[in-house]
Specification:
74% of the residues lie in helices and 0% in strands. It has one domain. By secondary structure, it is mainly α.
């Protein structure tokens, strides 16, 4: 094992993530203090009915979009309207949260990999609304999942002070650093014993169906299982070397934006009582189908269109 290279990779991935996450966390906190989350909730309230959800739950969705599913869950646990929702309504709420959470940080990470921020924002919000509307209509027509949701949300005490927020963010950053170290060591071991090639072989057919090259398979696996932050951090490092084509970068970034951290995030929203078939199975099929359609539509576009509308200067010209 090349320990020098491993140490350099840890430094590069950590720096690429933290220089995005820390300023973004501060900006989001300032926006929350200024009431941006409440303003966004008021903006979303009129469309909640289209998703068969009470208008009061708009604050849950906007909090999740600005921060993370944990924060959205805490807000949801304090709302009386949540207790009367069906499994179908909870599934719609949970799926929207999974597709649109942590937008500021994850959009900035995606932008750093070379995909334009406006594309990621449109993809995430468009996918969230589309999936929610499709499910709401499906449940209304079929009557599926009409039984009351069984919630299992714990009571959590949150320190609302600035000091409490700083402690929480510092702890999160320390945990992320530890995960990065463990992840990169683990990936290096997988490379040495040949498991990485096996993962590429297993995931290759699905990626190729979405017009994404095999070179991005390991990053896709990391993103899907551990999260966009870690997958994006690895992708940033590889993009800088120019070894991944811009179309593969675009495809894998779009894919892991819709389907990432499937174990942790799924476990979080399952506390609200949705259907696992919907939040995991439907999300998986929806992500594959949507990215397949998008990649089929954009793969033949001329380079100047890609450079102007889809990708940015963070992808080296030699990446193709």
């Amino acid at each position: 094992m090349n320990w020098q290279k491993l140490r350099d990779d840890i430094v590069v991935v950590s720096w690429n993530l933290f220089k995005i996450m820390i300023p973004t966390l501060i900006i989001v906190k300032l926006c929350q203090e200024a009431g941006l989350d409440l303003w966004l909730a008021d903006m979303m309230a009129p469309v909640m009915g289209l998703m068969s959800l009470p208008p009061s739950l708009a604050i849950v969705l906007t909090t999740t979009m600005l921060t993370n599913p944990y924060a959205g869950l805490l807000v949801a646990s304090s709302l009386p309207d949540l207790a009367g929702l069906s499994v179908g309504q909870m599934s719609v709420l949970a799926l929207f949260m999974l597709l649109t959470h942590s937008l500021p940080i994850e959009v900035m990470i995606s932008r750093r990999t070379g995909v334009r921020a406006r594309v990621v924002i449109a993809l995430r919000l468009g996918a969230g609304f589309l999936a929610a509307l499709l499910l709401a209509q499906l449940f209304a027509v079929t009557g599926w999942y009409a039984e009351p949701a069984q919630m299992a949300m714990p009571q959590v005490t949150v320190d609302p002070s600035l000091v409490g927020w700083l402690k929480t963010q510092l702890l999160s950053l320390v945990m992320i650093q530890l995960i990065i170290i463990i992840l990169l060591v683990f990936l290096e071991i997988l490379r040495l014993i040949g498991v990485e090639r096996l993962m590429q072989w297993l995931l290759g057919p699905f990626l190729r169906a979405m017009h994404i090259g095999d070179r991005a398979s390991t990053i896709a696996i990391v993103g899907v299982t551990l999260g966009l932050g870690f997958g994006g951090g690895l992708l940033i490092k590889d993009v800088e070397t120019g070894t991944i084509a811009k179309k593969d970068v675009f495809g894998v970034v779009c894919f892991i934006n819709l389907l990432h951290s499937i174990f942790e995030d799924t476990a979080i929203v399952m506390l609200m009582g949705p259907s696992l078939v919907i939040v995991l199975g439907f999300r998986l099929i929806f992500a594959f189908a949507l990215i397949y359609a998008i990649m089929a539509a954009v793969k033949l576009l001329p380079d100047h269109y890609w450079q102007r509308f889809l990708t940015n200067q963070n992808i080296p010209a030699e990446a193709g």
